[in-house]
Amino acid sequence: MLSEEKTGLPKGNSGLDFDTVDISSDGRYLVIIDQTLLPGKVEFLHLDKLEDMREAIYLLKVRGAPAIGVAAAIGLYIEASHIYENYGEDKTAFFSELKKAKLYLEAARPTAVNLKWALDRMYACAESMKESSVQDIAQGLKEEALRIKAEDIHVCSKLGEYGLTLLKKGQGILTHCNAGHLATVRYGTATAPIYLGHRQGYGFKVFADETRPLLQGARLTAFELSEAGIDVTLICDNMVSSVMQKGWVQTVITGCDRVAANGDAANKIGTSGVAVIAKHYGIPFYIAAPTSTIDFETETGEDIIIEERPWEEVKNMWYERPMAPEKASVYNPAFDVTDNSLISGIITEYGIAYPPFGESLKEIKKKMEIKL
Ligand code: MRU
Fold first, then answer.
1. Measured between alpha carbons, how far is 222 from 201 in angstroms, rounded to an integer?
2. Which of 37, 92, 136, 344 is the most exposed place for a label (fewest CB within 10 A)?
3. Integer CA distances (angstroms), 174 to 105, 183, 325, in order
């Protein structure tokens, strides 16, 4: 297992001195910071019921593709220990209940592939131990969940190193949604190069899109970057063209929830619009993606399932009074797909993939297989 020391970065690198997702010291609870309360309140939740863990993912108490993967992995381990408490060494019952729990968690959010990736990995770990006792399998699942967590920290620190090679001192960087410390265990994906550069005196000026309708940019990105002492300016989503036209932005970096084999990338709704505008102004647009976010089984962006969320998020949430007529219908997709032709590069923990992505992502896959 990767030790946390190997990441080479202190826990507080981002300005936040906690892990977004963790397991309690007695191993009985999934511990998350409740992101729906930020920035007003820093409150940690201790969850041990499967229903509560799934609800936390659905309601975005824990959110961001890597963070929900780690949360689901820890959650499945906790459920595995409950199954052992209820059914003892009955292996048939164990695997049947474990499968049900896996599918239940997996269905919480369909677009971020890290959720399925982490749960598949946990289930495969259990299957690889099927000759062992149920008690040992449950222990093995705890170790696998902790490995997934430690790897996330290491991978984000690598994204920081590779991403920083694309940036210059004093640059204006625009990001959308929150692909930060709060969306991972630590450091973030899109924010990892920003944090690393900040520590090295790069003096970046970051523009954070507020990210309607759930305001991840305003509530989370602006919060964590300002906590780290980074110069961050919050803008409404419809101000992107304006700040680019003024010459204030030299690079765009966003996270993503699923990259198809051809490089099309699904990320928070609004990302594809940012990419189109960046192209117009000749500004490079990068996606930061741990390889756990690359879905080689999905050929193109058209095959990615886009999560749709309740209308209340658009009409009522955050407002003291409803802000739209009752009769107006609402379309609320949580993600959109950025066409690969708009993406300048995909930053992974194995290096940066450049167009044509069909080829360069295959090279990344080869590096992943060598590592295995
Ligand atoms: O709906 P959310 O808040 O989970 O959406 C998150 C995003 O779109 C992030 O940009 C993405 O998960 C990358 S996280 C490193």
1. 19
2. 92
3. 33, 17, 33
Residue closest by Cα to atom 8 of ligand 1: 268
Give dist(CA 142, CA 136) in Å, integer.
10
Reported pTM:
0.95
Q: Are strands 172-175 and 44-47 parallel, antiparallel or unpaired?
A: unpaired
Ligand 1 centroid distance, CA of 337 (Å)? 13
Residue ranges of the alpha helices (H) in the chain? 50-58, 65-87, 91-106, 113-128, 134-164, 192-199, 216, 222-227, 240-245, 271-280, 312-315, 357-371
Q: How remote is the CA of residue 335 from the centroid of ligand 1, in Å?
A: 9
Q: What is the pLDDT of residues 180-207, one digit of tens each?
A: 999 999 999 999 999 999 999 999 999 9
Any idea how long the chain is? 372
Q: Give the pLDDT mean for 336-352.
A: 98
207 by Cβ neighbours in 10 Å (0-12 / 13-18 / 19+) ranks as: buried
| The pLDDT value given to residue 1 | 27
CA-CA distance, 297 to 304, in Å (whole number)?
10
Q: What is the dihedral of CA 151, 153, 154, 160, to 10 degrees?
A: 140
Q: What is the spatial distance between Cα 296 and Cα 317, in angstroms, rounded to a whole number?
A: 36
pLDDT tens profile 257-291: 999 999 999 999 999 999 999 999 999 999 999 99
| 146 pocket-lining for ligand 1 (C-beta < 6 Å) | no
Strand partners, 45: 32
Residue 282 alpha carbon to ligand 1 centre in Å: 25
